[in-house]
Write a structure and sequence with these properties.
Number of strands: 11
Number of domains: 2
CATH topology of the largest domain: Chitinase A, domain 3
Radius of gyration: 20 Å
Distance between the termini: 24 Å
Helix content: under 10%
Order of helices and strands: EEEHEEEEEEEEH
CATH class of the largest domain: Alpha Beta
Shape: globular
Strand content: 35-45%
Number of helices: 2
Length: 170
Protein backbone atom coordinates (compact mmCIF):
# COMPACT_ATOMS: atom_id res chain seq x y z
CA UNK A 1 0.00 0.00 0.00
CA UNK A 2 2.85 2.41 0.77
CA UNK A 3 4.15 2.04 -2.79
CA UNK A 4 1.00 3.43 -4.35
CA UNK A 5 1.72 6.53 -6.44
CA UNK A 6 -0.33 9.32 -7.96
CA UNK A 7 -1.35 8.08 -11.40
CA UNK A 8 -4.32 8.03 -13.72
CA UNK A 9 -7.63 6.92 -12.16
CA UNK A 10 -6.35 6.95 -8.56
CA UNK A 11 -8.33 9.02 -6.07
CA UNK A 12 -5.95 11.57 -4.60
CA UNK A 13 -6.35 13.79 -1.54
CA UNK A 14 -4.13 16.82 -1.06
CA UNK A 15 -3.71 19.80 1.17
CA UNK A 16 -2.64 22.99 -0.53
CA UNK A 17 -2.32 26.73 -0.41
CA UNK A 18 -3.02 28.72 -3.54
CA UNK A 19 -1.41 32.14 -3.69
CA UNK A 20 -1.98 34.43 -6.66
CA UNK A 21 -0.24 37.45 -8.10
CA UNK A 22 -0.54 39.73 -11.10
CA UNK A 23 3.08 39.28 -12.16
CA UNK A 24 5.44 36.32 -12.43
CA UNK A 25 7.56 35.83 -9.28
CA UNK A 26 5.75 38.69 -7.53
CA UNK A 27 6.73 38.80 -3.85
CA UNK A 28 3.29 40.18 -2.97
CA UNK A 29 1.31 36.99 -3.55
CA UNK A 30 -2.17 36.95 -2.04
CA UNK A 31 -3.52 33.81 -0.37
CA UNK A 32 -6.57 32.83 -2.41
CA UNK A 33 -7.65 29.45 -1.01
CA UNK A 34 -6.54 26.50 1.06
CA UNK A 35 -7.34 22.84 1.44
CA UNK A 36 -6.49 21.48 4.89
CA UNK A 37 -6.03 18.07 6.50
CA UNK A 38 -9.57 18.32 7.87
CA UNK A 39 -10.96 19.52 4.53
CA UNK A 40 -8.63 18.29 1.75
CA UNK A 41 -9.15 18.41 -1.99
CA UNK A 42 -10.08 14.88 -3.14
CA UNK A 43 -10.29 14.15 -6.85
CA UNK A 44 -9.82 11.45 -9.49
CA UNK A 45 -6.37 11.99 -10.98
CA UNK A 46 -5.80 12.24 -14.72
CA UNK A 47 -9.37 12.77 -15.90
CA UNK A 48 -9.00 16.45 -16.87
CA UNK A 49 -10.94 17.87 -13.94
CA UNK A 50 -8.07 20.07 -12.74
CA UNK A 51 -5.45 22.25 -14.40
CA UNK A 52 -2.99 20.02 -16.30
CA UNK A 53 0.01 21.85 -14.77
CA UNK A 54 -1.37 21.22 -11.27
CA UNK A 55 -1.73 17.51 -11.98
CA UNK A 56 1.74 17.35 -13.54
CA UNK A 57 3.18 18.55 -10.21
CA UNK A 58 1.53 15.59 -8.41
CA UNK A 59 2.14 12.75 -10.86
CA UNK A 60 4.31 9.95 -9.53
CA UNK A 61 4.34 11.25 -5.95
CA UNK A 62 3.51 9.20 -2.84
CA UNK A 63 1.63 9.91 0.38
CA UNK A 64 3.64 12.36 2.46
CA UNK A 65 5.36 13.95 -0.55
CA UNK A 66 5.08 17.70 -0.87
CA UNK A 67 4.59 19.57 -4.11
CA UNK A 68 5.00 23.08 -5.44
CA UNK A 69 4.10 24.50 -8.82
CA UNK A 70 3.80 27.91 -10.36
CA UNK A 71 1.32 28.24 -13.20
CA UNK A 72 1.26 31.14 -15.63
CA UNK A 73 -2.04 32.55 -16.94
CA UNK A 74 -1.66 30.81 -20.32
CA UNK A 75 -1.42 27.45 -18.51
CA UNK A 76 -3.99 28.39 -15.90
CA UNK A 77 -7.24 30.25 -16.48
CA UNK A 78 -6.11 32.37 -19.42
CA UNK A 79 -5.64 36.08 -19.68
CA UNK A 80 -8.28 38.65 -18.84
CA UNK A 81 -10.41 39.23 -21.95
CA UNK A 82 -12.28 42.53 -22.25
CA UNK A 83 -14.70 40.84 -24.67
CA UNK A 84 -15.92 38.80 -21.72
CA UNK A 85 -17.32 42.01 -20.16
CA UNK A 86 -20.90 42.02 -21.41
CA UNK A 87 -23.80 44.39 -20.82
CA UNK A 88 -26.97 42.44 -20.03
CA UNK A 89 -30.42 44.07 -19.95
CA UNK A 90 -31.37 44.76 -16.34
CA UNK A 91 -34.77 43.16 -17.02
CA UNK A 92 -32.96 39.79 -17.28
CA UNK A 93 -32.56 39.88 -13.50
CA UNK A 94 -36.21 40.56 -12.73
CA UNK A 95 -38.31 38.06 -10.84
CA UNK A 96 -42.03 38.85 -10.84
CA UNK A 97 -41.22 42.22 -12.40
CA UNK A 98 -38.69 43.27 -9.73
CA UNK A 99 -34.92 43.14 -9.33
CA UNK A 100 -33.78 41.82 -5.93
CA UNK A 101 -31.22 44.37 -4.68
CA UNK A 102 -29.67 41.74 -2.39
CA UNK A 103 -28.76 39.61 -5.41
CA UNK A 104 -27.87 42.32 -7.91
CA UNK A 105 -24.88 43.81 -6.08
CA UNK A 106 -21.46 44.76 -7.42
CA UNK A 107 -19.05 41.89 -6.78
CA UNK A 108 -21.70 39.18 -6.55
CA UNK A 109 -21.18 36.06 -8.63
CA UNK A 110 -24.38 35.02 -10.39
CA UNK A 111 -25.16 31.92 -12.44
CA UNK A 112 -26.03 32.89 -16.02
CA UNK A 113 -27.31 30.59 -18.76
CA UNK A 114 -25.57 30.69 -22.14
CA UNK A 115 -27.43 30.24 -25.43
CA UNK A 116 -26.40 26.58 -25.46
CA UNK A 117 -27.90 26.01 -21.99
CA UNK A 118 -24.56 25.89 -20.17
CA UNK A 119 -24.53 27.67 -16.80
CA UNK A 120 -21.61 30.08 -16.37
CA UNK A 121 -20.92 32.20 -13.31
CA UNK A 122 -20.39 35.89 -13.95
CA UNK A 123 -19.53 38.74 -11.61
CA UNK A 124 -21.58 41.91 -11.39
CA UNK A 125 -19.18 44.75 -12.28
CA UNK A 126 -21.49 47.73 -12.75
CA UNK A 127 -25.22 48.40 -12.39
CA UNK A 128 -26.62 50.99 -14.80
CA UNK A 129 -30.17 52.29 -15.35
CA UNK A 130 -31.16 49.69 -17.93
CA UNK A 131 -28.13 47.37 -18.10
CA UNK A 132 -25.81 45.40 -15.88
CA UNK A 133 -22.14 44.95 -16.81
CA UNK A 134 -21.23 41.30 -16.17
CA UNK A 135 -17.72 39.82 -16.19
CA UNK A 136 -17.64 36.31 -17.65
CA UNK A 137 -13.86 35.88 -17.22
CA UNK A 138 -12.74 33.21 -14.76
CA UNK A 139 -12.06 34.95 -11.42
CA UNK A 140 -8.40 33.88 -11.72
CA UNK A 141 -7.97 34.99 -15.35
CA UNK A 142 -4.68 36.84 -15.78
CA UNK A 143 -3.32 35.62 -12.45
CA UNK A 144 -0.10 33.76 -11.79
CA UNK A 145 -0.90 30.78 -9.56
CA UNK A 146 1.44 29.36 -6.92
CA UNK A 147 0.39 26.07 -5.34
CA UNK A 148 2.20 24.41 -2.44
CA UNK A 149 0.89 21.35 -0.67
CA UNK A 150 1.17 17.73 0.36
CA UNK A 151 -0.24 14.40 -0.81
CA UNK A 152 -2.19 13.00 2.15
CA UNK A 153 -3.98 10.01 0.61
CA UNK A 154 -3.94 7.96 -2.58
CA UNK A 155 -6.40 5.13 -3.07
CA UNK A 156 -7.95 2.97 -5.71
CA UNK A 157 -11.24 4.23 -7.11
CA UNK A 158 -14.43 2.44 -6.09
CA UNK A 159 -16.49 0.82 -8.83
CA UNK A 160 -18.94 3.72 -8.67
CA UNK A 161 -16.08 6.23 -9.02
CA UNK A 162 -14.67 4.28 -11.97
CA UNK A 163 -18.05 4.49 -13.70
CA UNK A 164 -18.19 8.25 -13.16
CA UNK A 165 -14.67 8.57 -14.58
CA UNK A 166 -15.72 6.65 -17.70
CA UNK A 167 -18.55 9.15 -18.16
CA UNK A 168 -16.00 11.99 -18.04
CA UNK A 169 -14.17 10.31 -20.97
CA UNK A 170 -10.96 8.98 -19.57
Amino acid sequence: MENIIVEKTKIVSVTYELKVSDKKDDQNEKLMETATYSNPLEFPFGVNLLLPEFEKALEGKKVGDSFETKISPENGYGYFNNQMLINIPKSTFEVDGKVDPNILQIGNSLPMQADNGQVINAIVKEIKNTEVLMDFNHPLAGKHLHFTGEIIQIREATEEEKEKMKQINI
